[in-house]
Amino acid sequence: MGSGDETIVAVATPPGEGGVAIVRLSGPRSEAILTQVVRRPRPEGIWESHRLYAGQAFSATDHFLDEVLAVLMRAPRSYTREDVAEIHCHGGLVVPGLLLDSCVSRGARLARPGEFTLRAFLSGRIDLGQAESVLALIQAGSTGEARLAAEGLRGALSRRVAALRQDLLEWMAFWEAEFDFGDEVPGLSVQQVADRLKKAREALQGLLAEALEGRNCGEGLLTLLVGPPNAGKSTLWNLLLGEERALVTPYPGTTRDLLEQPLRFGGHYFRLVDSAGLRPGGGPVERMGMDRCRQAVHQAEMLVVVLDSSLPWPEGLEFLSEASREVPTVVILNKRDLPERLGIREVEERLDCFSVVPTCLLRPEEAVPVRAALQDAAKRAGAGRAAGALSVNRRQWQALARAQEHLETLESGLQDGMPWDCLAVDLRMAVSALGEITGENVTDEVLERIFSSFCLGK
Ligand SMILES: Nc1nc2c(ncn2[C@@H]2O[C@H](COP(=O)(O)OP(=O)(O)OP(=O)(O)O)[C@@H](O)[C@H]2O)c(=O)[nH]1
Ligand SMILES: [Mg+2]
């Protein structure tokens, strides 16, 4: 698959209106096609590699199409390690398509989705793990996901999987060379084998734990609105979501259940949860709501404490002092349209505040500073999450888990005194599962499946 004899072409930018679109070529005829499609003022000059030239682009029927900038990146210093050319024309629905046709009429073939990255993989410039990180980076929906995918592109997962696989491979080679199908490997005690196995399994366990953390990064930050009844939590929830979802009344104790909605802004995902106001006493139903809220405080990754600044510090919030030290806590000091009885200083004495926003939530424009404060706090909360996390897709996850299972079987087989040749089967399977991540052990169908989910031109 993906024969490098052909020169492929695609529009690398999304379709539609835009300042600039890029048509990209890769393969041995890139320079020849570029020379025919893009004419420079002084045509006798050669295309120097990695230099941007101004020129005029012509259609398949040799009509002037557009003023363009073009660059040739000679092999092997390119994304695919082949000759790559890029033509930067004006964006829109028509010109990039006509430029594409022009390249095809001069001998290029339309690229399949992900074919440029497939060629980068087949030429050995990147491994499969890095290729999949390219996809994860393009599809990232939050800054946290993008950061992890970028680390993957730099080899965060591949390097560690490759090292682990190499270790097991060396071991397998030793095993195959030395053992004589008896029940002992010369020069290696069962204890030594067991120790080495344990190390490998622990390393794999560490990878899986970090992968799990990485998966969380794709989910919204659990952000709990909490405070005394009637302070304006539901007003804030509605304001942030942009619709009247939760009931808002002047009667304390309106909200009972936890209400959750996803929300996305400023490059962050949130799971925004409204809750029952906390106060001593209350009826049985209200108390059930308050219990749910208290439990949610311990699961939250970010707290938004909403307080009524026209009343003194409320009773029943003491436990929030400890919780505020554990996760970024934004305090919304609401109802500033009324005479003040609770000031910023007192709030800061009682809670560990990431920030305090004095506001009056009856004014819709107050959503702006509140969003800004949440965004800053999310950066802190998200950073905590991304530390020690890896971007791992479903396929990679399954391969890691399979490798882990084989090592476990190997370990218990060793303890039960199974013969070496039986154990070697599991070792081989573990090596093969790890190879599926870096790309050593994948079939053409698997590659086809992986790369077909890429966008065109990548
Ligand atoms: N004066 C004033 N009233 C506000 C402000 N923000 C909200 N309110 C009013 O305060 C009352 C309570 O608001 P809610 O949003 O229901 O308060 P809550 O914190 O969700 O209350 P519970 O669900 O009972 O815990 C409503 O009548 C709101 O209109 C504000 O900034 N100033
Ligand atoms: Mg409410």
Give an overview of the whole structure.
The protein is an alpha/beta fold. It folds into three domains: 8-126, Gyrase A, domain 2; 161-215 and 392-436, Up-down Bundle (Four Helix Bundle (Hemerythrin (Met), subunit A)), CATH 1.20.120; 223-383, Rossmann fold (3-Layer(aba) Sandwich). The protein is 46% helix and 17% strand. The protein has helices at residues 30-37, 95-105, 115-122, 128-139, 143-153, 156-178, 190-216, 233-241, 284-299, 320-326, 344-350, 367-386, 394-415, 420-438, 444-452, and strands at residues 8-11, 20-26, 38-39, 52-58, 64-73, 84-90, 109-110, 221-226, 259-265, 268-274, 302-308, 329-334, 355-358. The strands form two sheets. The chain has a seven-stranded mixed β-sheet with strand order 3-4-5-6-2-1-7. Helix 4 packs antiparallel against helix 5. It is flat, with a radius of gyration of 30 Å. It starts with 7 loop residues before the first strand and ends in a 6-residue tail after the last helix. The model has no long low-confidence stretch (mean pLDDT 90). Guanosine-5'-triphosphate binds next to helix 8. Magnesium ion binds next to helix 8.
